[in-house]
Design brief:
- With 301 residues, the chain is mainly alpha-helical.
- It has three domains: 89 residues, P-loop containing nucleotide triphosphate hydrolases (Rossmann fold), CATH 3.40.50; 64 residues, Helicase, Ruva Protein, domain 3; 125 residues, Up-down Bundle (Zinc Finger, Delta Prime, domain 3).
- The strands form two sheets. The protein has a three-stranded parallel sheet with strand order 1-2-3, with helices on one face. It has a two-stranded parallel sheet with strand order 4-5.
Length: 301
């Protein structure tokens, strides 16, 4: 098949539609992908103009070229009250799909499934969580790191936590997971020591703080959900089902974490996280160490 990749900011609607309507050369099909589709709106001022307008795609939707597979991608949904938005969502010739960013709590399960399906190996839940914490929810980057680890353990059927620590170059003795464990144990001295070590062994204090605050926000959203549902008398198994967490090991860790706090403490903790986020963004004169130390002290209480 013929393949064309266009970017909305680089072409006009008329140019994109011209390619969509053209027939493939020496092939049965043409695949046309338009990234940043809504930027085509800048291509012209009115329907039918020489440069074209994004609404001109409505006519194409009515009578699409049967030899072209047109894929329109954008980070935002077309406005539901716009003509093109209505056409995309309702017309029988269009498949409309939304791909939400994967929540952090689902990343370890995704890692386990990816390792199993693409490398026919198993990975320890602790190793999957470690990978997720190192890389974050960028699935493309995460799959690349998984490939590295699985190549490293080519002769083994199982990827261990030790394997991940050996192969991921950014591994340090102390990270967000170790800090979390100290905070959940209410060990102030250990938590402050780990915080100091994290900032001493990072290339960017700001980047480290942003990742750490984001990590703890994800942790305490889950802790809050567990405590909220438990207050209603819902069983542990029902809570796990309600949260949609399939990995028993990961859920049990969250359950243990939640047991370290009371539901009444959650507003104080989320306020501390919000204040830390604002401080990182310049709404404070505190330095990086003070921001992190202050956050840790407020969470532990």
């Amino acid at each position: 098949f013929n393949f064309d990749l266009l970017y909305g900011q680089d072409v006009t609607p008329a140019q994109a539609l011209s390619i969509a309507r053209s027939y493939p050369m020496m092939a049965e099909k043409r695949v046309l992908i338009i990234r940043n589709f809504l930027n085509l709106n800048k291509g012209g001022e009115e329907t039918g103009s020489a440069r074209g307008h994004i609404n001109d795609f409505i006519n194409y939707i009515e009578e699409p070229n049967p030899t072209t597979l047109l894929v329109c991608l954008d980070e935002k949904k077309p406005p539901g009250n716009s003509n093109v938005g209505k056409a995309f969502k309702k017309h029988k010739n269009v498949g409309f799909y939304e791909f939400e960013r994967m929540p952090d709590y689902m990343i370890p399960d995704w890692v386990i499934d990816w390792v199993r399906s693409h490398h026919t190996k198993n990975i320890e839940p602790a190793a999957a969580q470690l990978l997720a914490q190192f890389v974050g929810n960028n699935l493309q980057l995460l799959s690349t790191e998984i490939d590295k680890v699985c190549t490293f353990v080519d002769t083994s059927d199982t990827v261990s936590e030790a394997d991940v620590k050996k192969i991921i170059g950014s591994y340090r003795e102390f990270g967000a997971i170790e800090l979390k464990d100290a905070i959940m144990a209410r060990n102030m001295e250990q938590a402050l020591y780990i915080s100091e070590q994290m900032l001493q062994h990072t290339k960017s204090d700001t980047g480290e703080l942003i990742r750490t605050v984001g990590f703890f926000n994800s942790v305490f959203v889950n802790v809050w959900q567990i405590l909220r549902l438990s207050e209603k008398g819902i069983s542990k198994n029902q809570v796990q089902s309600e949260l949609g967490i399939k990995n028993n090991w990961y859920f049990n860790k969250l359950w243990d974490d939640a047991s370290s706090f009371r539901y009444a403490e959650m507003p104080r903790i989320f306020e501390a996280l919000l204040d830390a986020d604002r401080s990182i963004k310049g709404f404070s004169t505190l330095d990086s160490t003070s921001i992190l130390f202050f956050l840790v002290k407020r969470i532990i209480g």
